Amino acid sequence: MPKSRHQLTAECFSRDFNVDDAERFLKDDLRWRKSTKIDKLRLEDFADIASSYPVHIDTYDKNGAPVITAISGQWDLRQAHLSGQGQRAQLFLDKVMDEAANQVRRAQHEGKNVTRFHFLLNLDGFNLVQHGCPRCFIGILTFLRSYESHFPGLTDRIVIFNAPQTLQTLRPLVRSAISGHTRRHLKLFGTNKAEWQKYLLEFIDKDQLTEDFGGTRIRYADIA
């Protein structure tokens, strides 16, 4: 039988010999799922958010594990909060993470050796006005807390690249907001394409990645 998201996360905690954390997660997560009605959230139409803040889950690594991809330059976090869409954007991201976790489960059902997913963030276009404003940063921290609380241990690699020098001002605060387990899976690259592209191609085929992520794939849905 394929493992549920709860079982996968509990197993991740158990590998660190932290059974108490696994039990705490299961209880807290069940309460969260009930309060947010996450099962109904899967069916909700987020076209208004997805068009302005695109995130894709249509890429897979060499073993069949799902890969979430996003480009920060396509997101105007400041506008999201000014327009009152901040909370809805957070629900959309929760839905994305939940879908990636469910894709892991489906891959297991197909007999693939997949236990986690990856998250790739291209920081091309990042700037402190649109992404580093006080409300923006609170939104980023909210997302990190949601991931740590409801999807911990389910990401194999978190790869952030094209990080500008201005990001260094936020890095200590972001690192303090995530657990040691998450930090161990986090890889940060600057703007040297040769470096981050080489790393990505170690576990993802080039034809799976679009040009923005160092690949050759054309995502026809993105063509106007």
Automatic annotation (TrEMBL):
- Write down the InterPro entries for this protein, in alphabetical order: CRAL-TRIO_dom (IPR001251), CRAL-TRIO_dom_sf (IPR036865), SEC14/CRAL-TRIO_domain (IPR051064)
Q: Which Gene Ontology terms of cellular component type are present? A: cytoplasm
Q: Which residues form the CRAL-TRIO domain?
A: 45-221
A Pfam family matched in the record: CRAL_TRIO
Query: SUPFAM superfamilies per the record?
Result: CRAL/TRIO domain
* Entry protein name: SEC14-like protein 2
* Organism whose genome encodes this protein: Orchesella cincta (Springtail)
